[in-house]
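Hi there, hope your week has been kind to you so far. Do you reckon you could talk me through the fold, stretch by stretch? Thanks so much in advance, here it is.
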Amino acid sequence: MKKRQSCWKYLMLMGLLGVLVSGCQTVDERENYSGEQEGIQEQLANEKEKNAKLQEELEQEKQKYEDLDRETYGPEKQALYQAIDETFSLICDYDTTKREDSVANRKKKLEQWVTSTGINDLFPNDADQGEYSVETRSYLSEEPEVYLMTDMRKVTNGKLLALVMVRFEFSVAGSDAQKGHALYKVIFDRKERKLADLDNLGDIDVY
């Protein structure tokens, strides 16, 4: 009987030891898991900090480049955009019932922004002869969209190439206004600060 009790006590003791050992292992595993989680979180925090610092450095470099580009080419780009705005305003904004909007007057005003060759591209030589046969009103519905196609740092021939998207509305003989658009290829002469060539590519829409 005593032997059985001793065996039973021994088994109970071993069982308790097993539970304690298992519990210790569970605690150790939890501590290890918690430690791993903290390590991962710390690593992620470090990576996030590195990415934020890198992004800040990239923004600073971008700003330096933009400042240098603006300082170096700003006035020239401004001259290009102004020439385009003024030119297409004279081309598209007109009322044939007004004398100041005649082809002759508009060609005269264009001389400030376009070379003589460019003006001939826009208007036939005899376009300013005679009167308009039909009353027409036209105006730009949006500012011209300019896409500079030339890297200004690599220009060797003194000319810049740009595409210009023009959107306008027009009315003929009192009819309801109709919408139109055209894509132009223009060349800007850096020396003369004028548009030297204007090529109407047709009613191509960029979007």
User: Anything to note?
Assistant: Residues 47 and 53 are 10 Å apart (CA to CA).
